[in-house]
Each structure stands twice: as structure tokens, then as C-alpha cells.
Amino acid sequence: MVKGSSELSPIDLMAHLLNMESHLGRDRLKSEKWGPRLIDLDILFWEGLRSTQTEIRLPHPHLLERSFALIPLLEVGPHLLQDEYFSSLTSQKLSTLRIELNEITL
């Protein structure tokens, strides 16, 4: 998980990320969609931005379903819980996430 800022648009940044994946040996066209991969670079969330464009959907369409992505995102940006996007997280889901966060060993 990386938190950062960019002067690039989300679409341009995603194009650079896909280019990096390609240079590191990932072929998205030949790869199994949900299979193991050498590298997987995604933009999960862009604060203050929503996008349903084909090139990039923000927030990532499966973010709320994936604890492995959601937990690190909320670790680097706990204030994001105030964003309306996260309002659908139930108190039960948040409790589960907190338990999972406490179980993480670095």
C-alpha cells in the first residue's frame, strides 16, 4: 500500500502503473484474471474523486469487499472513514476490520 500525490490525472497515472507492470513481466491479456501474478498495481482510492470511466473506476469497485486492500488503506488514511463512500460499511464490518487490524503482525 502506497499513499501519495500526483500531478497526473488518475487515467494517466494508471497508464504509467500498467506500463510498469508490463516492464516487470506482467501480461494482463495472457494472465489469469484472478490468478497469481508477478505484480499488481492499482489505484484503490483517490480522495475527493469518483470515476466510472472505463479506463479507471474510483474508488476501486471491489474495495469494500477486500479486507486485504481496505485494511492497509485505512491504516495509511484513517480519516478516509469520514468520506461518504465508506458510509456503507456496517458497524459489524468495521468491528471485523478492527479485529483483523489488531491481528496483523509486522
Description:
The chain has one domain: 7,8-Dihydro-6-hydroxymethylpterin-pyrophosphokinase HPPK (Alpha-Beta Plaits), CATH 3.30.70. Strands 1-2 form a two-stranded antiparallel sheet. The protein starts with 9 loop residues before the first helix and ends with a helix. It is built from three helices and two strands; from the N terminus they run αββαα. Helix 2 (67-76) packs across helix 3 (91-103). With 106 residues, the chain is mainly alpha-helical. The model has no long low-confidence stretch (mean pLDDT 86). It has helices at residues 10-23, 67-76, 91-103, and strands spanning 51-52, 57-58.
How much β-strand is present in the residues?
under 5%
* CATH architecture tag: 2-Layer Sandwich
CA gyration radius, whole angstroms: 15 Å
What is the count of structural domains? 1
Helix count equals: 3
User: What is the strand arrangement across the widest sheet?
Assistant: 1-2
CATH class group: Alpha Beta
Largest sheet features = 2 strands, antiparallel
The CATH topology turns out to be Alpha-Beta Plaits
- Unreliable parts: none
Mean pLDDT: 86
SSE succession: HEEHH
Q: Give the end-to-end Cα distance, rounded to a whole number of Å.
A: 14 Å
In helices, the fraction of residues equals 25-40%
